[in-house]
Structures are given as C-alpha cells and as structure tokens.
Specification:
This protein has about 350 residues and is an alpha/beta fold. About 40% of the residues lie in helices and about 15% in strands. The protein has 14 helices and twelve strands. InterPro entries: Aldolase_TIM (IPR013785), DapA (IPR005263), DapA-like (IPR002220), Schiff_base-form_aldolases_AS (IPR020625), Schiff_base-form_aldolases_CS (IPR020624).
C-alpha cells in the first residue's frame, strides 16, 4: 500500500515553505492527457515479445491476484517485455469495466517498473473505448490495445474516425483480428492513421503478406499468430509477436523472437501452438495452465475445458518439449472433468 506524507511542505518562515520531498506529480491521480508521455511510442514499438496474459480465478469467480502476480513474475523472468492485460486471452470481454481498470492499475502498480503494461481498452462503442482508455492511462498503463468495432460493424470512414478518438490519449496498438470481429481493417485505414505520433503499430492476424505490406512502409507490426510469428519476424519484417504460447513457454518464445532464425525450435513448438487453438482461445490456454498447476481449474462461462483426449495430448506435448521449459513447478497432469469449476455468476 502506498503511503504519502501528510504535509507536503515544511514551514521554515512566515510565508515560505521548504521544497517538497515529493512533488504532486509523483502520486496524485492524473488525467490521461497529462500522463500519456510516461512511456514514449518508440518505447512500445521496440518490444519484441508481448504476452497476452491469462487472468486466473478463485473458485467463486473473482480474480485470483496471487496466481496472477505469479504469472506476471514468470513472464518477467522469462524475458517478456510487455503484457496485454484484459485482452481476448485475459478474458476482458468477461469483465466489468471496474474489474478491467482495476486489473490494469494493479499490474502497473506491482510490475510497471519491470514490464510494459498494455491495457486492452478497446470496444465496439467509441464512447466506451474513449472512457476506458482515459481510465487506463490515468491508472498508469503504458499503452492501449484497440480492436475495430465488432458486431455493429462500421464503414472505412467510421473505422478511421473511431481510432482517431483514442489515438491522442497515448501510445496505441491497433488489433486486426477478422476471425473475431468479422471485419478486416484494410491497409488504407492503417496508412491513414500511421501519421499519428501515438500510433505504435498493429497486431496483425491476417498473415505474412499483410505483415510485409506494412513493414515495407515502415509501420511496426506484431504477429498475432503464434504459429506464424517466427517467419513473420525473420522473413517478413515484423518487430515481434503478441503471444498466447508465451504464457506457457516464455523463455522459448523469447529465443524465437531474439536469437535469429531457428526453424528447429519453431518446428518443435508448432504442435503446442496448434493445440492451443484447436478450440477458440483461451480455452486451450486455460486448460493447459490448470494442468500445469499454476492456476486453479476455474472457468468463467461460456468457456469450458478441452475434452479429456485433448488434456491427455497436452501432457504428451509437455513431455516432448520438456517440462523444464514450461511455467510452474508441478508435473503436468491429466485433470478429470470433475476437477473443473464452471462459474456463471461472479
């Protein structure tokens, strides 16, 4: 818990105060427009390994902050340079905005000096995206992640207008994932936004050719697909990856992004990456982390664990890659159906 001096200045003579040991800017809550330059956009552009971190739960469905803190520490020790908080993998769509902003603030306060905290404050409502992003920067996040409006899709001009409303607030990564939003963000939109000083880059899930289209123009790109990230990084110019697999094998993903082309390591990891996405993310990751004993086997519905045969397959994948490369200390185990807790109210 933070403690602050009860008196900012010490009176030394009538009408005069000594210089404060702590200035107001060090700790008072600020508006997003005042803190947006806490981390430069270039500081975000340089990140190579960003983990879309899992949010673990207690049996009653509340956040398990002890397990969460352990996950973040493991990411730091494994070489991750940033974390996405409350993204798709972190199940931000299953959180209230109060929960969401609290978790961003908690991550910043506990770990912000050691890892970049990128808050997923995007929404299909521009109003909500603006408000959440203001709050996220006010609690200290280093950058925002923004998806294009989904379900209630808009026009190309609408996409540009939506992103223009949030870009002035601070460093921003735009997230293009048509498989989830049902709408591609076309290159003309990204090119129109690339002139903004806060435009850090794009998490791109469309594939290598789209990655190259942008990197040829000097636009920073992170692969959004673990199974493509090695080639995107070393053959198509991507800066790095925003990864799901790094929740499980951060050290190996760090090697994949930092140590040059390594087709053998990439091939070794592909079965894990394919397994993780055999059902929509984060179902596989949630199952895997529970089997490794690093989170409780608690799922917020509508997510449910992978079936038994897939849980058995995961243990075999761990054995093939090497248990020492995975997070946690316990042996991977095959959990029974009755071991999992499914929560609909929390």
């Amino acid at each position: 818990m933070c403690t602050f001096p009860s008196i900012i200045g010490t009176r030394v003579s009538k009408g005069k105060f000594a210089v404060a040991a702590v200035t107001l800017d060090d700790y008072l809550p600020m508006r997003s427009t005042e803190v947006k330059n806490r981390t430069s956009t270039d500081g975000i552009k340089s990140l190579r390994l960003i983990t879309a971190v899992k949010t673990p739960y207690l049996p009653d469905g509340r956040f398990d902050l002890e397990a969460y803190d352990s996950l973040i520490n493991t990411q730091i020790n494994g070489g991750a340079e940033g974390v996405i908080v409350g993204g798709t993998t972190g199940e931000g769509h299953l959180m209230s905005w109060d929960e969401h902003i609290m978790l961003i603030g908690h991550t910043v306060n506990c770990f912000g000096a050691n890892i970049k905290v990128i808050g997923n404050t995007g929404s299909n409502s521009t109003r909500e995206a603006v408000h959440a992003t203001e709050q996220g920067f006010a609690v200290g996040m280093h950058a925002a992640l923004h998806v294009n409006p989904y379900y209630g899709k808009t026009s190309t001009e609408g996409l540009i207008s939506h992103f223009k409303e949030v870009l002035p607030m601070g460093p921003t990564i735009i997230y293009n994932v048509p498989s989830r939003t049902s709408q591609d963000i076309p290159p003309p939109v990204i090119e129109a936004l690339s002139c903004y000083s806060n435009m850090a880059g794009v998490k791109e899930c469309v594939g290598h050719e789209r990655v190259k289209c942008y990197t040829d123009k000097g636009i920073t790109i992170w692969s959004g697909n673990d199974d493509e990230c090695h080639d995107s990084r070393w053959k198509y110019g991507a800066t790095g990856v925003i990864s799901v697999a790094s929740n499980l094998v951060p050290g190996l993903m760090h090697s994949l992004m930092f140590e040059g082309e390594n087709a053998a390591l990439n091939e070794k990891l592909l079965p894990l990456m394919k397994w993780l996405f055999c059902e929509p993310n984060p179902i596989g990751l949630n199952t895997a982390l529970a089997q490794l004993g690093v989170v409780r086997p608690v799922f917020r519905l509508p997510y449910t664990p992978l079936p038994l045969e897939k849980r058995v397959e995961f243990v075999r994948i761990v054995e093939a890659i090497g248990r020492e490369n995975f997070v946690g200390q316990k042996e991977a185990q095959v959990l029974d159906d009755d071991d999992f807790v499914l929560i609909s109210r929390y």
